[in-house]
Amino acid sequence: MKTLLLLALITVSEATIGVFVKLTDGRIPIQTLTFYAMAFAAAFLFVARSLANGERPRFPKNNLKDTAIIGVLIAAQGGVFNLAMSLVPIANAVIFWSIAPFFVFIFSALFLGETAKRSYILIFVVALVGIALANPLGGAHMLGNLVALSTGAIYAAMVTYMRYEGKSETSNDIAWSLLIAALVLSPFLLISGPGDMASTIAYPKLSMELPVMLWALGLGVVSTGFAYFGISIVLRSISANVYALVDIIVSPIVAATLGYVIFSEVPGSGMILGGALLLGAGFWLTREMSRGKENQAVHPCQCA
Q1: 36 close to 220: Cβ distance less than 8 angstroms
Q2: pLDDT of residue 34
Q3: Which residues, 6+ apart, have CB-to-CB distance to 230 below 8 Å?
Q4: How confident is the model at residue 57 (pLDDT cuts 50, 70, 90)?
Q5: What residues are paired with 172 via a beta bridge?
Q6: N or C end of the chain: which has fewer CB within 10 A?
Q7: Nearest-angstrom CA–CA distance, 35 and 43
Q8: CA distance linking residue 186 with residue 169, whole number of Å
Q9: Which residues contact 300 (CB under 8 A, 6 or more apart)?
Q10: Cβ distance 47 to 286 under 8 Å?
Q11: If you average pLDDT over every residue of the chain, what do you get?
């Protein structure tokens, strides 16, 4: 029961990425916002893991290259995904990101030597129909939709590399990777500026004003830090592939629902139907690729 509750909390935390990005109302440049998120997430993980394990963070001197590469990929994936969230409705971003499992298969075939099964042909056909119905090149959100699609490719590159190296979020190194991601993004403090950190935004329905940095803190601690920390705990009770299957289908649905409830974002019928086919095909492909590989590293979470 505790595992299911924690899994639900992780799913919701990952789904809040777009909410926190949009709540900043453009007051913080998007890549600067991603820097703040990675820095807050790294700090949270260092503290949380120390409190949970009673151990001081160990510098990964024997695994520095892998930790750094994963950090760079996290920075790229987080920055591009947050950019997509700032350009399109939340539903668009998470639906087009859900093409990631197909990039994972392509990269795994190219770099890990994994072979295709006959069932993959039907899965790819379903996915192509879903993309056609969702129509990323149509409407006013073409640029943002393409950015979201590219996020799926970057995410898949990170997944493939972590699978190749046998890494997962249970490792001490992920906190260091997040710190490296923050360092990679730190030049945007000068390039784009630190943002209007001292400003507040009024919320008439709540009869209060809240600081913009609160949402940057939420993006780092809730959407990223807590998600990684929670996954490291929940994987002690369930297999990595069970988590991956739940995450790939549930988190996008929760994120799209939050977009509707909080921002009144209503996706078109084509996006809904196409998204359903894409999510279903992604779930199916992930399940097929997971058969007989229960001990491999889990997909990293879709965090900011």
Answers
A1: yes
A2: 97
A3: 6, 9, 10, 13
A4: confident
A5: none
A6: N
A7: 12
A8: 23
A9: 74, 155, 158, 159, 162, 168, 169
A10: no
A11: 87
